[in-house]
Design a protein that fits this description.
Oligomer: single chain
Order of helices and strands: EHEHHHEHEHHEHEHEHHEEEHEH
CATH superfamily of the largest domain: NAD(P)-binding Rossmann-like Domain
Number of strands: 11
Strand order of the largest sheet: 3-2-1-4-5-6-11
Number of helices: 13
Shape: globular
Strand content: 15-25%
CATH architecture of the largest domain: 3-Layer(aba) Sandwich
Distance between the termini: 24 Å
Structural class: alpha/beta
Radius of gyration: 21 Å
Length: 391
């Protein structure tokens, strides 16, 4: 199944790490550590192989992909030997990265993105293209016609009004071009009634939001533990230190607020209440693409005895995120091939703020993900037939 992955933010750290990793795996130069779709429980003939993948994308940044890869290698994010081994393959991907048409009026931007996606699909004779947003976090938008439905949104676009965040404009363009859409960021993306309607009309799946790679991943394991042991979490506070482009973007208050809200959802929905405390995100330029989180949890047990737990998470954001980007693209492509339509709620395993109202427990999300892969292998959808019903 020849599959294109179109990356919004294609020259960023996460996208570059994803591209280098996929090329290295295709060439047999690396192991698929971190790719959950390569675990025995999820390995499936219904998924496109790494050899099936082709990459393209948009970015406002103009630094050549190989230069970005070399910079990440110098920072300890990528092995320098891998970057040095695949210059020709990186040059091929470089030729498929286009300037983001972000300065155009909405209808022209949508048309430009659709044209780029269509040409990319035709040039490589791809069975399908999955659009993945790995660009910087956007502030939460105010209410606009996209909340009222597709007809209201289309009328506003034709009138020349700028009514969509960039992430949602890409989702609109992806669906118009017949492409599934994945939002790895906490931005709005396809989370608007008008875009859900458009996806249903075009018979397309989509997934998101906000990749779960660090502190929230730990929360999704620990919070169910407290709930199942009937321990009362009184406070849960965290401090996140981020460097690199993501950290610089999150220094902006509105983007920071959108990210923090996404990170907090797991606690309220797992515990059934929201403990005191908040998650703070601070920008520390010196740590680059690495991140550190410190969390303090206070809780009470039998007869009100007070206790506490602390943990520290230190990781490389791009190295944690990149294999998940590849997993999501492969799973979404297979779901599209199987006829799935609407939000892929079984992919909640990968997200802080997923579509749907299912459990935030990582173990339960893992079970749902395994169930999805079994459905893809047998060619059945949610209704047990050959094609899924609208989600």
């Amino acid at each position: 199944m020849r599959t294109g992955i179109w990356l919004v933010g294609a020259r960023g750290s996460v996208a570059t790490t994803s591209i280098v990793g996929a090329l290295a795996l295709r060439a047999g130069l690396a192991e698929p550590t971190g790719c959950v779709t390569e675990l025995p429980e999820l390995r499936s003939p219904s998924l496109p192989t790494f050899a099936d993948l082709r990459f393209g994308g948009h970015d406002v940044v103009t630094i050549p992909l190989v230069k970005k890869a070399e910079a990440l290698a110098a920072a300890g994010v990528l092995p320098a030997r891998l970057v040095a081994a695949i210059p020709d393959q990186l040059a091929t991907v470089e030729s498929e990265i286009r300037p983001a048409p972000a300065d155009l009026p909405p209808t022209e931007m949508i048309a430009a993105v659709v044209a780029d996606l269509t040409r990319f699909r035709d040039r490589y004779r791809l069975d399908r293209v999955v659009v993945v947003n790995v660009s910087t976090t956007e502030p939460a938008p105010p209410s606009h016609p996209a909340h009222a439905g597709l007809s209201a949104l289309d009328a506003a676009l034709l009138a020349g009004e700028t009514v969509l965040p960039v992430s949602s404009t890409y989702a609109y363009a992806a669906f118009t071009a017949g492409c599934p859409y994945v939002d790895f960021t906490p931005s709005t993306g396809a989370r608007l009634p008008a875009l859900a309607e458009l996806a249903r009309q075009r018979r397309l799946p989509y997934a998101g939001h906000d990749g779960k790679t660090g502190e929230t991943l730990v929360k999704s394991v620990l919070a169910p533990m407290f709930a199942m042991r009937h321990l009362r979490v009184r406070t849960w506070s965290g401090v996140n230190l981020l460097g690199g482009g993501d950290g610089a973007n999150l220094a902006e208050p509105a983007a920071n607020a959108a990210k923090s809200a996404s990170k907090q959802r797991v606690l309220g929905e797992t515990l059934g209440y929201v403990p005191q405390g908040r998650t703070r995100i601070d920008y520390v330029d010196d740590i680059g693409d690495f991140k550190t989180a410190w969390d303090l949890v206070t809780f009470s047990g039998f007869l009100g005895t007070g206790m506490r737990m602390e943990f520290t998470w230190h990781g490389c954001d791009s190295a944690l995120a990149a294999p998940l980007v590849l997993d999501l693209a492969r799973l979404t492509a297979a779901a599209h091939a199987a006829g799935r339509v609407g939000p892929l709620t079984e992919l909640a395993f990968f997200f802080k703020d997923p579509f749907g109202t299912g459990s935030h427990s990582l173990a339960e999300q893992w079970g749902a993900l395994r169930g999805l892969v079994r459905q893809l292998d047998t060619g059945t959808g949610q209704d047990g037939g050959s094609r899924a019903v609208d989600a």
